[in-house]
Amino acid sequence: MADQTVGQHQIHDFTLQSDTQHANPFQTRLSATFTHNSGATIDHLPGFYDGKITWKIRFSPTLEGTWTGKTTSDDPALDGLDLDPILCTPNPNPHIKGILQIDPENSRRFAWSNNDPCLPLGFEIDWLFSYHQADPGRCYKHVDLIAERGFNYIVTNLYAHTGFATRENNDTRPVDPEYIFGPPEHYLFEGTNDNPDHSRLNITFLQDFDRLMAYLHQKSLIVHLMLQVQNKGVNWPARRSPEDDRFWRYIVARYQAYSNLIWDVGKESKNLLRQTGSHAYTLERMVLIRGADAYHHLVTVHDVEQRNAGIHSEPDRASDFVSDQIHLKDVGRYNREAIRRLRTLEKPYMNIEYGYELGTETLKTYTGASTAPWQDILK
Prior knowledge:
Elements: E1 4-7, E2 12-17, E3 30-36, E4 41-46, E5 48-49, E6 54-59, E7 65-73, E8 82-89, E9 100-102, E10 110-112, E11 117-118, E12 122-124, H1 128-134, H2 136-148, E13 153-157, E14 189-191, E15 196-201, H3 203-218, E16 222-229, H4 242-255, E17 261-267, H5 270-276, H6 280-292, E18 299-300, H7 314-318, E19 322-325, H8 331-344, E20 349-353, E21 356-357, E22 371-372, H9 374-378
Parallel strand pairs: 1-8, 12-13, 13-16, 16-17, 17-18, 19-20, 21-22
Antiparallel strand pairs: 2-6, 3-4, 3-7, 5-6, 7-8, 9-10, 10-11, 14-15
């Protein structure tokens, strides 16, 4: 068979099918190892279940030339398959420059895998996945506007359920219902948030998120993806349960081929510290992500400890770069903490959450000392 042509760092899905009866197809193990004609390999790239009798292996060639792949699976119908060869051609999108990494010449800066420097200019859109579910056409228009205004970095949640309907730390002040968004149309797992089936993920949700990720990739916007958020009403699987581990591995398997991706254990991970009493779970999730990611994307943890005044926590030290949350009203503290961290930790330091946008006309967030209409922020 003639080689299929795929541009460097573009996405190609190998679609595989199996009629094998599975009690739970999400438990099926599937991966592929890809070999370049130079001998370079991408080892153990995990596949994922995509509904009915379909599994996929999402592949992105990192080098020009010919790639061949072979599968490994505990399903005999998916095991030992020789995948169609891929001819990787020059990248048709000059703005896609590979995988974001730490600059090998300066450990406090970022660079693309083609060695071009990268200076992140971020925009936080925690509700982006929900906006895409509700109105993808308008969502894409706003993504276009963000890119046109010079932003190259988007911070977003994989999923949140109630937005800002519930305040943190038992705060009983009333919430203006105009600034509550959610629940989204599609839940991340099968069932509902009130009555979930954590053993199975919602393929409809994930296929919709695929379309959003593909659009962000083609716009060459870095996606800082927060895999969990603990204070937005989500009914997550029990920590360290088989369902929990399966969720983390599945999401890493499904999205790691996108070169514009950064993994974040979770938005405001200080909540994990408060709930569990230690950083052990956070550190375990980092190990799990890295072990499942054949493309070796950067891994970070947002806001690990509240007001840690420049002290490096265990997750900070384990992260590829530090992701902080210091609001505009705390600018003096931000300057002090940034200086301390830059002096004592040889990795990038980013304050990725410091002001809030009000959202859009149909999906708003909340007001506060650090908020402004999204249109004003983009001016």
